[in-house]
Structure formats: structure tokens, C-alpha cells
Design brief:
Elements lengths: L1 H15 L3 H5 L4 H12 L7 H17 L1
Helix pairs in contact: 1-3
Length: 65
């Protein structure tokens, strides 16, 4: 499932031609969330898998910036 989150994120990133941290730290991240919800359902946002994935993005952004 987390692999699919990454695929969606990377696809949106490529379509918008943004660095990953620019996408994550913008309102464009809503597009990523909407696509994830469309595929997995609204309840995915309350799952451990999604929470861990988003937390890892935050950690990566902190260390990269």
C-alpha cells in the first residue's frame, strides 16, 4: 500500500514538475491525498500505513531542508 502512495506522489510530482518537498509543502499535496482517497477510500487517511508514510515525508523534509 505504501508503495502505491509513493507511486501516486511521484506521478503528481512529475506532472507538476515540482521537487518532492515543494509538492509536500504546498496545497498541491491535496491532489495526492485526493487520489489516494479515490483509490483506497476515505478511511485510509486514518490508517497506520498512511500515517507512517506521511510522517516519513515530514521527517525527510526536515532533514533535507
Amino acid at each position: 500500500m505504501r508503495e502505491r502512495f509513493e507511486e501516486i506522489f511521484e506521478r503528481v510530482q512529475a506532472e507538476l514538475n515540482l521537487d518532492w518537498y515543494e509538492l509536500y509543502d504546498s496545497d498541491k499535496f491535496d491532489t495526492v491525498v485526493a487520489l489516494i482517497v479515490a483509490e483506497f477510500g476515505e478511511e485510509i487517511l486514518d490508517s497506520d500505513e498512511y500515517s507512517e508514510w506521511e510522517s516519513e515525508l515530514e521527517d525527510e523534509m526536515y532533514w533535507d531542508l
